[in-house]
């Protein structure tokens, strides 16, 4: 795909400037060699500021424009968009597999989940409008209260869910009447291109503006103007902080952020071993651990440690590795070229400080892949304990007293979710209450995850700002306004 158009102010503009080549880390047969997939425009400040002008113009335009448009008209635009998107399923699923190495079933799930999310958001928006636009009266003052947009939203999504999580930001922002500038993630960028026309012909000009290029070149100049009202980003806090700092009045910015997490699994002595091993396997390694919700550290009680680890380590080695379209594949090539080396560094650091690799294949490198290493005993001075690995390496600690993992969680910079495995309700009940005050979701006898998308998705401390979900995202991208009048 040689992508040469971008969407600004309702026009699909032609690009004749520099381009960035896009490669897949999935190799053809023979010796390992990344596959060339295409190229995208490498845009800069000029195009970024044009997109900002278009978004601001669309927000400020008079009556009948997007922010003041009737609810049913905005819904009609969104329905028109999603119907066209449904026709692109096969193409987008193919690109998900090639660009980010996501398995076929997971790529299909990402697409279908996104379509469902859009339809659910439309329904929720109808419901919100019915319930939130109402009259009230207190102390002789009448109020007509409603929910309105915030302004211009800059939206940046992650590479691990380049469609689903990006749209989990973009769709609610748009439907609430905001205008948007959106730059796709570095990996998973081409899969947005089949949707450019659908965006163009579904929404009024300037409501959705789509740019390509590096975040520093495109997003930073937009932030520097101080004219962005919402920074919506799923990714890492380094990028979020850097962009926030660019904004001259950052205290005015609404932040909708989904950031890092280091979700622990805590396996109690009475846990069902089959179930906890199966859930820890999915939790640590689904999509190679490249999920913010992945289990990134496992605490096992000393009484069951030996059996748990022996069975867990052999289950890891039994996972099938291959290309995303191979039937039953669980482990696939990593989309970031330097990632196996980074994971190797974490493993070496842990080995130097006294950990062992428990599984035979742990750390083996093939092409752009490194086999998941189960590391034990991990200590708190190791990088793999402190850093969000976001990849295939599993640090394990054992504990005797429950205070050990609880103290770690209290000290952690993150607070998204936890998985708790055990049976005795008298132990679990008080523990659940404690855990719920350290994170935002306690998963009982199951691995951590974001879905179903009707449930709140958020985190404490450095893990998130604002809440996403079909219900909450509409609120995160809006503000309650009202008209007041007196009973004269
Ligand atoms: O990367 C973070 C995502 O929110 C994970 O979503 O739990 O549905 O895989 P998921």
UniProtKB/TrEMBL annotation:
Sequence ranges assigned to domain Aldehyde dehydrogenase in this UniProt record: 35-478
Pfam families hit by this protein: Aldedh
Keyword list, A-Z: Oxidoreductase
Keyword Oxidoreductase: yes
InterPro entries hit by this protein: Ald_DH/histidinol_DH (IPR016161), Ald_DH_C (IPR016163), Ald_DH_CS_CYS (IPR016160), Ald_DH_N (IPR016162), Aldehyde_DH_dom (IPR015590), Aldehyde_DH_Superfamily (IPR050740)
Keyword Oxidoreductase: yes
GO molecular function: oxidoreductase activity, acting on the aldehyde or oxo group of donors, NAD or NADP as acceptor
Homology family: Belongs to the aldehyde dehydrogenase family.
Protein name per the record: Aldehyde dehydrogenase
Species in which this protein is naturally found: Robiginitalea biformata (strain ATCC BAA-864 / DSM 15991 / KCTC 12146 / HTCC2501)
């Amino acid at each position: 795909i040689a992508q040469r158009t971008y969407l600004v102010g309702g026009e699909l503009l032609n690009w004749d400037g520099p381009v960035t080549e896009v490669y897949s880390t999935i190799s053809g047969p023979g010796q390992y060699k990344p596959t060339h997939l295409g190229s995208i425009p490498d845009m800069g400040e000029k195009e970024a500021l044009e997109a900002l002008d278009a978004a601001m113009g669309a927000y400020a335009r008079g009556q009948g424009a997007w922010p003041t448009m009737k609810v049913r008209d905005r819904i009609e635009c969104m329905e028109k968009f999603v119907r066209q998107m449904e026709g692109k399923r096969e193409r987008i699923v193919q690109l998900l597999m090639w660009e980010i190495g996501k398995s076929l079933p997971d790529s299909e799930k990402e697409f279908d989940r996104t379509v469902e999310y859009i339809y659910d958001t439309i329904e929720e928006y109808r419901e919100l409008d019915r319930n939130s636009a109402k009259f009230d009266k207190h102390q002789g003052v009448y109020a007509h209260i409603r929910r309105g947009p915030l302004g211009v939203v800059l939206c940046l999504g992650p590479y691990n869910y380049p469609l689903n999580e990006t749209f989990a930001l973009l769709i609610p922002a748009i439907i609430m009447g905001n205008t948007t500038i959106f730059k796709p993630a570095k990996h998973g960028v081409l899969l947005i291109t089949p949707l450019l026309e659908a965006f163009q012909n579904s929404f009024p000009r300037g409501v959705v503006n789509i740019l390509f290029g590096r975040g520093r070149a495109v997003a930073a100049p937009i932030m520097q103007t101080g004219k962005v009202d919402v920074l919506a980003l799923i990714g890492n806090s380094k990028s979020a902080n850097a962009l926030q700092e660019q904004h001259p009045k950052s205290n005015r910015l609404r932040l909708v952020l989904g950031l890092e997490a280091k979700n622990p699994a805590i396996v109690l002595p009475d846990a069902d071993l089959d179930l906890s091993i199966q859930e820890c396997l999915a939790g640590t390694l689904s999509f190679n651990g490249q999920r913010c919700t992945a289990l990134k550290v496992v605490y096992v009680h000393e009484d069951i440690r030996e059996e748990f680890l022996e069975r867990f380590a052999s289950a890891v080695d039994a996972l099938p590795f291959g290309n995303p379209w191979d039937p039953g594949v669980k482990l696939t090539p990593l989309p970031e070229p330097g990632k196996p080396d980074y994971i190797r560094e974490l493993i070496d650091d842990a080995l130097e400080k006294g950990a062992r690799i428990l599984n035979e294949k742990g750390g083996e490198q093939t092409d752009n892949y490194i086999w998941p290493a189960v590391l034990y005993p991990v200590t708190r001075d190791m990088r793999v304990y402190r850093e969000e690995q976001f990849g295939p390496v599993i640090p394990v600690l054992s504990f005797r007293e429950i205070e050990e993992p609880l103290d770690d969680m209290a000290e952690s910079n993150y607070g998204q979710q936890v998985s708790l495995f055990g049976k005795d309700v008298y132990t679990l009940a008080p523990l659940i209450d404690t855990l719920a005050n350290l994170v935002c979701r306690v998963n009982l006898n199951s691995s951590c995850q974001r879905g179903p998308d009707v449930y709140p998705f958020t985190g404490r401390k450095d893990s998130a700002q604002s809440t996403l979900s079909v219900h909450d995202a509409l609120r995160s991208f809006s503000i309650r306004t009202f008209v007041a009048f007196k009973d004269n």
